[in-house]
Amino acid sequence: MNITAAYTDLYQITMAQVYFSTKPDGRAVFDYYYRSNPFDGGYSIFAGLEDVLDVLENLKFSPTDLAYLEQQGFEKDFLEYLKAFRFRGSIRSCKEGDVVFPTRPILQVEANIIEAQIIETFLLNILNFQTLIATKASRIRHSAKDGVLLDMGLRRAHATGGYYASRAAFIGGFDGTSNVKAAEDYNIPCSGTMAHSFIQSYGDELKAFRDFAKVRPKNCVLLIDTYNTLKSGLPNAITVAKEMESRGQKLMGVRLDSGDLAYLSKKTRAILDDANLEYVKIVASNQLDEYVIKSLKEQGAQIDIFGVGTNLVTGKPDASLGGVYKLSEYKGEPRIKLSENLIKVSLPYKKQVYRMIDANGKFYGADAVTLYNEDPLTHMEHPFDATKRLDLTALKQEPLLENVMDNGKRVVPSRSASEIAEYSKSRLEKLPEEYKRFQNPHIYKIGLSPKLKQERDALILKHKA
User: Fold this and answer.
1) What's the pLDDT tens digit per position in 389-415?
2) How far apart, in whole angstroms, are the C-alpha atoms of residue 139 and residue 144?
3) Do 417 and 170 meet the contact criterion of CB atoms below 8 Å apart?
4) What are the strands, taking DSSP E only, across 38-106?
5) By 3-state DSSP, what share of the chain in percent is helix, strand and coil, each rounded to 5?
6) Residue 419 and residue 401: Cα distance in Å, rounded?
7) pTM higher than 0.85, yes or no?
8) pLDDT of 253-269, one tens digit each?
């Protein structure tokens, strides 16, 4: 997508004009984080950072953007400022693909407040969506175990959101996508079968299968449920498979897209094996998600490849991640947002986040938020319960936020979707199983350093007074 700086909410530009007129040089720090895990789960997979950095390096207002803003009543001196607008700030972030948790900073922006404000909407739009979909994909991968997972959701996605959904799904653990453009741009394995309309257009199912196999003999998958799966589709597929063998070719698979997938897959597997076609894979699709796949596995379904669409790319049942972008420091002074809802009270100052690692190299179940450049902690404190603290002296403390952009330029090497997916897999393997279960997962502890808690509590008292 060609994203310009106008890819934002109007109020960002409105506030920017006021800043431009009154205090154009204020340096600000904003935190990006979210307040609760999606899908009632125990973790999320951070995704979208590479896309954000790519856009920010070249972000500007186009001539047509500026002409439109002039029509909206923005003053000419401010429009001249926007004409030269570039993001020249810094970003510190955890690595894309990492396992992340609620309420702790995932990413921090430090920049002139106008620049930091204008990029907010775009940043939230990309990171919230891709993190949501990568997390959904990770849950589906957990159910599928070693089964092959294909994203087939572009037709059901929310417009161009399907493009980013394919990338996020790959990071979250999927093996490939049917989305040609995303596969091309992100170097994701591309895969596809056929539609029922292809078979219907022939009127003769066997003829349709034969033509498809002759023209596309490599990775050939035949859709066998157009008329009758076991009495028509499967026997015709077996006929074509034998004809392919006579030409020195092999049918890759058959696809089930309706009916009782557990029953049909078991019957299909038995019939294929009886025909000495043990190598033919069984592909299944039709409203799959982590719960349906888990059930199919428990029923002993003989499915090798799962094609997942709607429930993946829409993040069903959660509509969004709900990530937020909060000011934590301005001109070197701390800033805080208060609320009657404690989870909505923000954390002041520029910060670092440490992950606790146990003696076996596993995540201990705790992240600590500290002031920037604090010494290693001896303990962390509960954000709001003064009676709770956790001794950290026996644990390794891994800093999570690293510099990824300075003065508007990337300072870390670009990482491919494959590299990020491998990293995410390695990080998820360090997360204990109790945080991955679907029902009542363990709650990952997020604590504060004593200094940060003291500073935050002092600000709370100051503003309440």
Assistant:
1) 999 999 999 999 999 999 999 999 999
2) 9
3) yes
4) 44-45, 90-93, 99-100
5) 40, 20, 40
6) 19
7) yes
8) 999 999 999 999 999 99
